[in-house]
From TrEMBL, chain A:
Protein's name according to its UniProt entry: histidine kinase
UniProt superkingdom: Bacteria
Organism: Sphaerisporangium rufum
Boundaries of every Histidine kinase/HSP90-like ATPase domain copy: 317-407
SUPFAM superfamilies assigned: ATPase domain of HSP90 chaperone/DNA topoisomerase II/histidine kinase
One Pfam assignment: Sensor
High-level lineage: Bacteria, Bacillati, Actinomycetota, Actinomycetes, Streptosporangiales
Reaction(s) catalysed (UniProt annotation): ATP + protein L-histidine = ADP + protein N-phospho-L-histidine
């Protein structure tokens, strides 16, 4: 408690100091704005904005670690550097430049001017010396003021009041730090639009990668077929043609040619089999991910242990991606790590598929160096999957792959309710108003008002002493039905969100 | 000899029917889907079934599942499984009950009619016919393990052929050895692997396969 308040007070102090120092930044920014847009000295603008962004980056870090407010970067990605034309000049609009200096400056300026986050940053900086300081200064002023003004007087009553005020200030400190975090979040967090734009950009990039990868894959398959099976079939056809011609005159030679054709067809079958394995492994198609990985494990030169816990089969593309990722990880383990044994664990949590591949090798795998690992990440990106690699020097290496939406379809199918509880829920929802209103509340009102109207209110047909208990019973029944239905629905919703 | 045949591709089915009939087999049913195969296996009780792994309606491993189910219902029902690809996983499942009368071959093996018919006869007689590719994979994944690693290359050749389900005479012919030399090799292999030697071809093969099968898990 004491630690928390004193830490909070210290943080308030730092925040106040920073907020007051921001006044300098404000002045600088104001001067630069006037110079840039009033006098056209725009070359000052990007540098200032970079300074402001550094300050706001610091503010975001502080908000994260001190106030527990997680604020993502709201900025658009920086523009790509300008690319020279074939003659080495840089073209921008209708102008040509000898060096990239002006075009890249223009791009940076454009990027900053058009990003709303720039202006929100500036608004935050201008608000800091006033609002930011005001928020965080409260406990500081309370403590410092009371100590200086009241405790120093030495009179007992005022001293007591001063101490109380100081303590109150200390208790307030952590809350003001949190409040400052909220204020920071208000302006420095990405707007919903910025967030969606960034998300869309990420998805767009992933899509481009997928299309590229697929196109490359198709080209590879086409080349393999063209150079392999197709060429072999042509050769077989020619051999058989030659055999046909020779069959009358030289049966011996014809037989030799036919045998040769058979051998060629066997070879092309082997080739096709290898290709099919590379496109979509047969076991994967026949048995799904679990058995396909088991088959992979059996064929691996390492001692591989596989444990599988899956609710069923996921969509074929996801399965295929997961399979090739495991295959690649296993290849890496046997090729680079010097491992003797590997453990593969395939499990699911809700709709997410999680694969862990652990080897007892020497570790030190670095995703930045291995193109295989980058390939894995590319494959996973298509399904919002992620790869986490933990590979300290000396091992062991653990690669964890998570595909968050692998069993989306299953979850949706499982959410369809079944069983008597759900049916009862429907009945309760449908009929609870009947005992509650026409058989409960309405006749009570009539009875109290003394209206002599019985209509179809069952309770009013009963002898007098039974009427009130029946009415209350009706209301209890209706309320009970409603309560059950609501409880059942929330239980169902909870299980659905868990699934 | 009565045969049930399951193959979904018409050309291949007709080809197999002709091939087997030409070699004196009687085709009692030639079916093209998993459910039909299950029914035919249980109703006809053939002397041997030749089954494609992938069959309609799901085009997954219908044929294999039907064959395994039938063997559970009728232990030792001889089944020769054909596939476009061979997997250790499936071989292990077929061999798991240890009763013999199983075969697992690549479809390419029908190119060599004599060998294929020989394999069908062997399976029908309660023996085994394992594709050299499967055996190669089984051997490869065992090669690091101690006892298999201690075999000489020649002994490994003999072991591979033995695992395919071939008799000593056939092995001798394939490796251009005398039968007594093969017998000596097999005795050495059994000694090194710590298996009980046996004269019965089928039990011998099953012991080898069980050994290859079990040593990894």
């Amino acid at each position: 408690m004491l630690l928390r308040t004193s830490k909070g007070f210290g943080r308030s102090l730092v925040l106040v100091t920073l907020a007051l120092a921001d006044a300098l930044l404000c002045a600088l920014a104001a001067v630069v704005m006037v110079l840039s847009f009033g006098l056209g000295m725009v070359f000052l603008f990007p540098a200032t904005i970079r300074l402001v962004r550094r300050r706001t980056a610091l503010a975001r870090r502080i908000a994260r670690s001190w106030s527990g407010v997680d604020i993502a970067d709201p900025y658009r990605p920086p523009p790509p550097p300008p690319v020279p034309q074939a003659d080495g000049w840089y073209r921008e609009g209708r102008s040509l430049y000898r060096t990239s200096l002006v075009p890249s400056f223009n791009r940076a300026l454009d990027w900053m001017l058009k990003d709303p986050a720039t202006w929100r940053d500036l608004a935050w900086v201008f608000g800091q010396p006033i609002l930011g300081a005001a928020v965080t200064a409260v406990p500081v002023i309370m403590v410092a003021g009371s100590v200086a003004g009241l405790v120093a007087t030495g009179r007992p009553l005022e001293t007591a009041a001063g101490v109380l005020l100081a303590v109150a200030g200390l208790f307030l400190a952590p809350h003001t730090v949190r409040l400052h975090g909220r204020w920071t979040e208000l302006l420095l967090a990405p707007t919903e639009k910025a967030r969606l734009t960034n998300e869309l950009r990420r998805v767009d990039q992933a899509r481009t990668i997928i299309v590229d990868v697929q196109a490359a894959e198709l080209r590879r398959i086409e080349r393999d077929l063209h150079d392999g099976a197709q060429a072999r079939l042509v050769a077989i056809g020619m051999t058989l043609g030659a055999a046909e011609e020779l069959v009358e005159t030289d049966p011996q030679a014809a037989r030799a040619l036919i045998a040769k054709a058979r051998d060629a067809s066997a070879t092309s079958l082997i080739e096709l089999r290898r290709m099919v394995r590379g496109i979509h492994p047969p076991v994967l198609a026949e048995r799904g991910l679990g058995d396909a990985v088991r088959a992979l494990a059996l064929d691996s030169p390492l001692a591989v242990t596989v444990s599988v816990d899956l609710p069923g089969r996921s969509a074929a593309p996801v399965e295929s991606a997961a399979y090739f990722v495991v295959s690649e990880l296993l290849t890496n383990a046997s090729r680079h790590s010097g491992a003797a044994s590997v453990t593969i664990d395939i499990s699911h949590r809700g709709p997410a598929l999680r694969i862990t591949v652990t080897d007892d090798g020497q570790g030190g795998a670095d995703p930045a160096r291995g193109s295989g690992l980058r390939g894995i990440e590319r494959r996973l990106a298509a399904f919002d999957g992620v790869l986490a690699l933990h590979s300290p020097r000396g091992g062991p290496t653990t690669a964890t792959v998570e595909l968050p939406h692998a069993f989306q379809g299953h979850a949706a199918r499982r959410a369809v309710p079944a069983g008597w509880r759900t049916k009862l829920m429907g009945v309760c929802f449908g009929l609870c108003w009947l005992p509650l209103f026409p058989q409960g509340l309405v006749p009570i009102v009539l009875k109290i008002a003394g209206v002599d109207e019985r209509s179809w209110f069952l309770a009013l047909y009963l002898p007098e002493p039974w009427q009130w208990p029946t009415l209350l019973g009706m209301i209890a029944l209706g309320a009970g039905m409603l309560a059950f239905a609501v409880a059942e629905q929330s239980r169902w919703k909870a299980s659905e969100s868990n699934a | 000899m009565r045969v049930v045949l399951a193959e979904d591709l018409f050309l291949l089915r007709e080809g197999l029917v002709n091939l087997l009939q030409a070699h004196g087999f009687e085709i009692v049913a030639a079916v093209e889907s998993g459910p039909e195969l299950s029914r035919a296996l249980l109703e006809e009780r053939p002397d041997v079934a030749v089954v494609d792994v992938r069959l309609p309606p799901t085009f997954t491993d219908e044929g294999l599942q039907a064959a395994l189910a039938a063997r559970r219902a009728v232990p030792g029902l001889p089944v020769l499984v054909l596939s476009q690809h061979v997997e250790q996983l499936y071989a292990r499942e077929l061999l798991a009950d240890g009763t013999g009368g199983v075969g697992y071959l690549l479809k390419d093996r029908v190119f060599n009619a004599a060998q294929f018919v020989d394999a069908v006869r062997r399976v029908a007689g309660g023996g085994t016919a394992m594709d050299p590719d499967v055996i190669a994979k089984l051997m490869a994944s065992n090669v690091r393990d101690e006892p298999v690693g201690r075999l000489t290359p020649r002994e490994r050749d003999v072991l591979a052929l033995m695992a395919e389900g071939r008799s000593n005479a056939a092995i001798a012919q394939r490796l251009y050895l005398s039968e007594s030399a093969v017998a000596k090799h097999t005795a050495n292999i059994f000694g090194k692997l710590g298996l009980a030697a046996s004269d019965d071809d089928n039990r011998r093969v099953l012991a080898v396969l069980a050994y290859l099968n079990g040593s990894r898990r």
